Amino acid sequence: MAATESTTPAATPPPVSEWSLPGMGLIKGLVVTGANMAQSFYRKDRMTTVQYPEERVAISPNFRNFPFLAYDGEDPATGLRCTACSICEKECPPQCIYIVMDRDENGKALKRPKVFDIDVSVCMNCGICAEVCPFDSIYMDGEYEIATGDRFGSLVFHKERLARSTDYHAKLRPAQAAEVAARRKADAEKKAAAAAAKEAKAKAEKEAKEKAAREAAAAAAAGDAPGTPPP
Ligand code: SF4
Ligand code: SF4
């Protein structure tokens, strides 16, 4: 019986461009590193470090640290948007928010916080409080230079420490602050229009009642007049 020839094709070598010598990856990495180092002497975008604290890089718009409470106007004592509804307190995963509602002498809720504390040594910067607040009151801050050795005196932020103006919010997160301001303005205009319509309706009803009363009085007076012939 004649010997049969093998039909399996011989393996073709890869093209030269795909050849990989031992250590080639390391050499490529060193070339990139060397190029970056050399360019960092004359190209600003290659300088990955700054002379902190004399120099600071702008924080990313998405950077968030601890929450702050927004207030309208000039006075944080009267302008805080927070209504002490406690939604953020309930939703905070590590339970580091503590709120007490302010009340008048009769115990009626004044819809503002008497106490609003956040223990920032426990806060995990999740931003859930800012997401769930229905009153545009709490947002995430970008402040990061708060290192201290005073655990309770400095790391439990009270409402005075947490209060930040809407101007601060606009500088920190311009897009978010603009969206919130536009929405609040539209809501305020809608409420004002509804109030004006309600007032106009009440006024019209009052005038109609007064007119009906006048006509009834006039009719009664006409019926009581002496010498009026019977119908
Ligand atoms: S950021 Fe998260 S952990 Fe911190 S106070 Fe808000 S909900 Fe709580
Ligand atoms: S910050 Fe917002 S969610 Fe929290 S208590 Fe105030 S109004 Fe309610």
The neighbouring-strand order within the major sheet is 4-1-6
Query: Would you count the extended β strands for me?
Result: 6
Shape type: elongated
Question: How many helical stretches?
Answer: 8
Q: H/E order of the elements?
A: HEHHEEHEHEHEHH
The CATH topology of the domain at 67-172 is Alpha-Beta Plaits
> Are any ligands bound, and if so which?
iron/sulfur cluster
Short description:
The chain has helices at residues 24-39, 76-79, 87-91, 128-132, 151-155, 159-162, 166-172, 174-224, and strands at residues 67-71, 97-103, 109-119, 138-140, 156-157, 163-165.
Would you write up a description of this structure?
With 231 residues, the protein is α+β, with helices and mostly antiparallel strands. The chain has a domain of 106 residues: Alpha-Beta Plaits, CATH 3.30.70.3270. Helix content is 42%, strand content 13%. The chain has a three-stranded mixed β-sheet. Strands 2-3-5 form a three-stranded antiparallel β-sheet. α7 packs antiparallel against α8. The longest helix has 51 residues. It is elongated, with a radius of gyration of 36 Å. The mean pLDDT is 89. Bound molecules: iron/sulfur cluster (2 copies).
